Batch of 2 targets.
Target 1
Amino acid sequence: MKLPDLDKARSEKQISSSDFLRLYNDDLPAGFPRASSALLREFKKTHETLFKHTNIWSLDQHRKKVMDWLTTRREK
């Protein structure tokens, strides 16, 4: 019997923006830009299509996009 993939379940879990912020910044490698509540609000405005019918975040769907977006903002 296969055990449940807890990491996958954690990544796909639908969470609030405050939980996403905490989990995003947890164990973030050095050199990667950290997120803040204000930056997540700006990201959400910029990427409205990711939040068409919901105010829900997930690490699986949003973490990489936020990381890439924060990196491009820092390079300007």
Note: The mean pLDDT is 88.
Target 2
Amino acid sequence: MKVILWNLRKSLLELFPTSKYRLILISLILIAAFISVSELLVAKLFTQIILNEDELAKSTLFLLIGGFFIFYGFTRAGQFAQRIYRLRVFDKAFKATDAELSMAKDNWRWSLAFELTHISSTLTQMGVVLAFFLYINWIFALINLVMIIIVLEVIGRLFKKQIEAQRGFVEAKKNKTPVANVIRVGTRIKSGEIGILLSGIAMIFMLGALFYFNYIGDISASNTVVLFFGLRMQNSNLSGISTGLMRFARARTHSE
């Protein structure tokens, strides 16, 4: 896991050498994290409406439904604006640097920046979602934290090996040594898919824990639904980190 954080930090300092653009980028990452929690709040509001529909007055019900759609719309619009604005940040940050790069190196620099922001945003989202879990049930959240650490530790080891493999491919290209596509592409895909498989196993384990806590009455029905959505989001995030890190390794080694 340390190798993931070290490479992310190093790439951040290299791609965005000025503190101005680093702060802007960090702000965009935090906005993405807020949006992820907002989606869980939307899910909680939705379950409250559905589960208590018969007990609510019509005026209150319509008000909650209207609030649900408005809140959901804001989260979608915020996500769209965040992703579009980062393009302008990349462009201005790269133009502010004095480095002269070839067309190929510049393309890899853009790819690296996209993977950097994607992985950093996803990790931040997971941290905020974990805090949300902690608010609902601290024991469940701690079990979930252990599972996340285990999965990220294994993904980190795969990522380290992928960097070494990609550097080998770059060296082979310089030496004009042909490398079969099944090896060059397959190595990256296989590593990413192993991470996705581990994430799926962790998801199954946590769903079992969620059923258990709901059965013994430690987690209410509405919170169980929200935690289910949160676990699905977490599984998607871990899968995205796994494949994103393998692309990150390729972009990093080719942009060096």
Note: The radius of gyration is 21 Å.
